[in-house]
Amino acid sequence: MKSRLPWIALVIASIGLGGCREEERAPPVPLTVLASASLEEFAIEVGQAFEQSANVTVQVVTGGTHELAAQLRSGAPADLFLATGLETMDALEAEGLVVAATRWNGVGNRLVVLGREEVDYPAVRFVDAANLGFQRLVVPDPNQDPAGAYARRWLSSVGGRGGSLWNELADRIETVDNIHRVTEAINADPSTAGVVFVTDIAEVSHGKVLFRSPDLGIRYSFALVAGDRPPEAQGLLDFIEGPSGIDLLQMNGFLVEAY
Questions:
Q1: Are 104 and 174 members of one domain?
Q2: 119 and 84 part of one domain
Q3: Local structure of 62: helix, strand or coil
Q4: CA angle (226, 83, 77) in 5-degree steps
């Protein structure tokens, strides 16, 4: 009778090799992305998409751009920073906290004044927006969030009592930490209006656009955080700037410049 030992040895060897392959499979590389509040949904979606094409896990941390920059300055772990506005990223670049050569400033957005669908607002020009009847106009803090700085610039660009619409509405303007707090305020109170990005309209149930801004030059800046970053971090940034990332940006309502 033929010996079965060679066959058994082959099976054992195969099992052993399979086990080695499992043991040799590297664990996923963890990546952390700091993303300004208005980019939250996009950042989560693009992170999930990248996880399908690379051996990574992507954690997204969101907040106001100034708040996230402060975290970065204090040494918070991060691989990518997706910021609203160019000024904060300019400062971080000057401080050596982001890699200048990786910056991409090709994404834009626009602002709207958003109210509630069930409110019967009178038809007025933007310069007369104070006559709409809202009790509060909620905006991100211009001194803490670039979205708020853009909102102040827009409302200050048209005349009104006190020299500008911003001044005329001063007693009704309420500032909050970031865009998410604005949409929360509008959702909570029909007598409240707010200034948000076009990409945040969907966060308000039964929202109604009252005014749209012209092109205020609102830009985002994406960059690799300085330091010893895994190659996958650059891979994620490349993915964001590539066809899949651009598709997701446009699906979320962002404007993307050809480059």
A1: no
A2: no
A3: strand
A4: 40
Q: How far is CA 28 from CA 13, 24, 51, 52, 56, in A?
A: 27, 12, 9, 11, 4
Q: Within this chain, do residues 116 and 66 fall inside the same structural domain, yes or no?
A: no
- Does residue 77 share a domain with residue 45? yes
**Same domain assignment for residues 41 and 77:** yes
Per-residue pLDDT in tens (0 to 9) along the chain, 259 residues = 444 444 434 433 444 444 445 447 789 999 999 999 999 999 999 999 999 999 999 999 999 999 999 999 999 999 999 999 999 999 999 999 999 999 999 999 999 999 999 999 999 999 999 999 999 999 999 998 999 999 999 999 998 677 899 999 999 999 999 999 999 999 999 999 999 999 999 999 999 999 999 888 899 999 999 999 999 999 999 999 999 999 999 999 999 985 4
- The CATH number of the domain holding residue 226 is 3.40.190.10
The answer on 122 and 104 residing in a single domain is no
Question: Is 56 inside a domain boundary?
Answer: yes
| Residue closest to 147 by CA, chosen among 204, 194, 91 | 194
- Beta carbons within 10 angstroms of residue 125's beta carbon: 9
**For residue 148, what are the domain limits?**
111-212
Q: What is the spatial distance between Cα 113 and Cα 163, in angstroms, rounded to a whole number? A: 20
Smallest CA-to-CA distance from 247 within 68, 42, 59, 94 is with 42
